[in-house]
Amino acid sequence: MRTMLMCIVILTAVLAVGLVAQENQNPLASPSTVQVSFVTNGQQLNRLAGRGVALADLDGDEFLDAFIVNSRLVDGSKNPPVFGGSPAEVWLDTTHRSSTSPQTEESYVFHFTFSDHRGDYLGLPRPGTTPERFAPGFISLDGRHDHGLVFSPSGKQAAFMTASLDWKENRLHFLRQIEGRWTHPVEIEFTRKNWCLNPIFAADESRLIFSMVIGKDQIKYYSCDLTGEGYSSPHLLDTPLNDSTSNFSYYSDRAGAVYFCGVRPGGCGGTDLYVLTGGSGAASITPITELNSPLDDDSPFLSPDERYLVFNHQTKDPQGKIHMDVMFSYRTPSGQWSQPVNYGRHIGATRRNWRPVITADGQYLFFSLEGEKGFDVYWVSASVLEQLKPKAELPGSGSPDSRSAGLQTQTQEGDKE
Q1: 331 & 222 share domain
Q2: Bridge partners, residue 325, by sequence
Q3: Is 152 part of a structural domain of the chain?
Q4: According to the model, what pLDDT value does residue 10 have?
Q5: Is residue 411 part of a domain?
């Protein structure tokens, strides 16, 4: 009880000092602080003389980010007293500021807490050829939309999107495996202001790449740097795709070609699938005509062996209701794409399913399926796509309208297998 009261007194003092510090606007420059070695989480901090309190300036902007409080008095006879034990953290602010110039850059600190999940894919039992809801209560939650889950190439990091049921709010979330143990997902703070879509990790995992909605009708590619402690503000990606058109999804193959989707002049209609080759010097953008249709085709994701492509395909029923399904198509010997198979119809999905992703080890397909309480993330063995692969890998033919009819025929054949 005495120790608990001591902790309460210390925390109360910390909050009081914190209020004064905020009023002074620059607490780390105060003469009441002395340079004493106090290390937590690899950071050497300033400590307030005579108290077990560290004033934490984690981003070097000379503004207070947090207090680190030692929770146990070791020796009160010393001057200053000696504190020890596990530090308790009181976070106040993680925004990078400049005291002499307008704010131009922000950096953010991960506030991780650990979950009970350990090992690859959160240590969950692996699915077979029937889709299973992924990590219910941890990733897939009732009362919101969960979609676009992607694991990094090493499988040690993951990102996904959430949205309110009315789609008015959208957030990007991140989690990491540290010494075998997974953290709880944390919200990427800058996505509170801007919608972000279809995250993917850079090959070296140093950056997270995503599309960001700018204004009312512009979508651009951005990235943020990832470190052991946090992440940067979003930076406009250096790519010729950040032109006057709106594009999203970004998958780069081994040769550097980028698979993406967008609304561009000369397209089939709606959003179409494209490939960017040549880079900034001699960029060439080619539509994937075998897969594009009069309605939306988007979110392309290439398998790690580059044999097949998964994507979203939009259809409209006789009553005019719009539906979205996960599709896949195999690369043919000629380099074209086979007649796509509607995987969503194969599993009997009567609601929208989208945002397909193939894991870096090629083992699993992740996608999101609409339910009564929002979209949830599902996963399934990628071997099911091999089972449903068209017997003759020939490219689709005919006009876009006739090819749409062919999609339904192909799906019905796949359903019978």
Answers
A1: yes
A2: 313
A3: yes
A4: 44
A5: yes
Q: How far apart are CA 360 and CA 153, in angstroms?
A: 5
Structural domain ending residue among the three candidates 98, 123, 157: 98
CB-based contacts of 385: which residues, under 8 Å, 6+ apart?
A: 308, 310, 328, 341, 343, 365
CATH of the domain at 359: 2.120.10
Q: Are residues 70 and 166 in the same domain?
A: no
Average pLDDT over residues 204-228: 92
Does the pLDDT at position 313 exceed 50?
A: yes
Angstrom distance (rounded) from CA 247 to CA 266: 15
Q: What pairs with residue 133 in β-bridges? A: 378
Average pLDDT over residues 386-405: 53
Q: Is the dihedral of CA 230, 232, 238, 244 positive or negative?
A: positive
Are the beta carbons of 375 and 356 closer than 8 angstroms?
A: no
Cα–Cα dist 108/191, whole Å = 12
In whole angstroms, what is the distance from residue 142 CA to residue 352 CA? 17
pLDDT digits (tens, 9 = 90+) for 112-121: 999 999 999 9
Question: In this model, does residue 26 exceed pLDDT 60?
Answer: no
Give the structural domain span for 83: 2-98
Q: How far apart are the first and last CA of the chain?
A: 68
Closest CA to 176 of 115, 93, 100, 240: 115
For residue 353, the cross-strand partners are 369
Give domain status of residue 383, yes or no. yes
The answer to whether 205 touches 151, Cβ cutoff 8 Å, is: no
For residue range 259-290, list pLDDT tens digits in order: 999 998 888 988 999 999 986 668 899 999 99
Residues 17, 173: Cα–Cα separation, whole Å? 33
357 plus 300 within the same structural domain:
yes
Q: Within this chain, do residues 117 and 76 fall inside the same structural domain, yes or no?
A: no
How many distinct structural domains can be found in the chain? 2
pLDDT (tens digit, 9 = 90+) per residue, 335-368? 999 999 999 999 998 899 999 999 999 999 999 9
